[in-house]
Amino acid sequence: MSLGIGEGGVGLGPDRLPGFGAAKIKKRIPRNASALWNLGAKDFTVLFHDGRLSLSDDYNNNFNSPAEEWLPQGLESVLGTQALFPLTAQFEMAGNPKENEVAGAVHDRIDYVWPILAKRVRIIPEYGEMFVQVFDDVETAEQVTIAHIGEALAAFIALEFESRDSPFDAYLAGDGAALNADQKKGMELFYGKANCASCHSGSLLTDQKFHALAIPPFGPGRTRRFDPYVRDVGRMGETDRLEDAYRFRTPSLRNVALTAPYGHNGAFPELEGIIRHHSNPLASLRNWQRDMANLPSVPWLEPFDFLVWDDRIEMKRYEEKIDIKPIPLSEEEIANLVAFMHALTGRSAKKLRFGIPNQVPSGFSVDK
């Protein structure tokens, strides 16, 4: 899916429906879900498409985050901190303010929700016992805080989604046969003519910076708190600086062949499409077709899905803010770059360390 169905939906995976009656979804999730690969790496210092979570001393709690000074004490990693925010997001997990205790607490002030969520976990006996076993500062289940839960989630994500065994890694380690001829040509383009490595750099293949690429816009977008537009202003939504408008964080390319669709909103269903877009963003934007967005059918929201395209002034601003220059690529070169992207897929990526458990302590059913 380009934009998923969040709180209020019914069912799982591709079969998920937008719900019914008063509980049905009120808004699409504004952006495509970020990949989890290697997020436990210490090199990651900024998360979310707009970078609204980063290491910082702005609030004397080690992080700049949507919770600002109300972030709970005890968090140790940017990943553990990130893990808390889907729990509090109205359209992701929390729900609408009058629907439940969690949503109501978040609506009042975000720190009101931390003890509610922590209690829901620690009163499950098996979870409480496991936290006592794992955390040195937890002697009884009653001492489990939301920070412990965030760091536990981070530890799981870091281990489960660690991926450093791709053919590309083997090639760098000295195995010249790890890449085929097309992949080697793609690698040469990536680090040469195509200029991909100017942003997708380092071992994680991201500079963790923000760039405007004119990814075709749609959906509700994510913007500033009192912005009346249906649009997505990207990094500017966090910084309120005009120069950051429409810029989004460079994603890591590790296992990129497994993370379709592409772009901050999932505008391109295939690797070839997003590579072509980088080759000539403005032409790609103007030629993009709406059916390329994989949106679940939600009749009461569909009139707004492409509303931004009717805003001539906004689209003009969007077209004028592009940070990369066109680089003509032949069909063969595009195919070689796609081949190299597949060489970034870890050999163990499709068979994860823990996998799906048979059961969980809460007693909730586990989808297989």
What does this structure look like?
- It contains 14 helices and five strands.
- The chain starts with 45 loop residues before the first strand and ends in a 26-residue tail after the last helix.
- It is globular.
- By secondary structure, the chain is mostly helical.
- Strand 2 and strand 3 form a beta hairpin.
- It folds into two domains: 39-160, no CATH class; 167-342, Cytochrome c-like domain (Cytochrome Bc1 Complex, Chain D, domain 2, Orthogonal Bundle), CATH 1.10.760.
- A three-stranded antiparallel beta sheet has the order 1-2-3. A two-stranded antiparallel sheet has the order 4-5.
Instruction: State the separation between the terminal residues, measured CA to CA.
Output: 19 Å
Mean pLDDT: 95
Secondary structure tally, helices: 14
Instruction: Provide the structure class.
Output: mainly alpha
- Overall helicity: 25-40%
Low-confidence runs of at least 5 consecutive residues: none
CATH top level of the largest domain? Answer: Mainly Alpha
Largest sheet: 3 strands, antiparallel
Domains (count): 2
| Residues in β-strands, percent | under 5%
Give me the strand/helix succession: EEEHHHHHHHHHEHEHHHH
CATH homologous superfamily assignment of the largest domain: Cytochrome c-like domain
Strand line-up across the major sheet: 1-2-3
Work out the radius of gyration: 21 Å
CATH topology of the largest domain: Cytochrome Bc1 Complex, Chain D, domain 2
Shape: globular
What is the level-2 CATH architecture name of the largest domain?
Orthogonal Bundle
Number of strands: 5
